Amino acid sequence: MHLLWDNAIPAFVKCLESLPNLHTLEIGSADYSPSTTQLKKVFEGVELPQIKTLFLPPAAYPLLECCHNVEDVDWVIGSELISIVNYLGPLASIQDLKVRRLAVPLVSLGNPSRKRTSTL
């Protein structure tokens, strides 16, 4: 496994669990992206009910399974715009979500006319 995955990601999960007042979580893209299967495994059994707002890349959708009280979800999309279609079905299958707003940009971040519509 990748060194980042072996050390930093499990520490990050433990950190998230220790922050009961954290209500907004933003995860950007990185040079190394763990697979959806890896993310499902590391977040299995994790509960983050305090999270109300998420900014995340589509491949990180397993994190939504931990955040059943999330109301606001923004997909962070770079060059993988076309791959978002692969994640909409699994997103719809997550039970008991309370999402009230889902922002899915139809242009990539490389387009200078795209502006983030949400603020923290």
Structure overview:
This protein has 120 residues and is of the alpha/beta class. It has one domain. The chain is 26% helix and 12% strand. It is built from 3 helices and 4 strands; from the N terminus they run αβαββαβ. The protein has helices at residues 3-17, 36-42, 85-93, and strands at residues 24-26, 53-56, 72-75, 101-103. A 4-stranded parallel β-sheet has the order 1-2-3-4, with no helix packed on it. Helix 3 links the parallel strand 3 (72-75) and strand 4 (101-103). The N and C termini lie far apart (34 Å). 15% of the residues are buried. Residues 111-120 have low confidence and may be disordered.
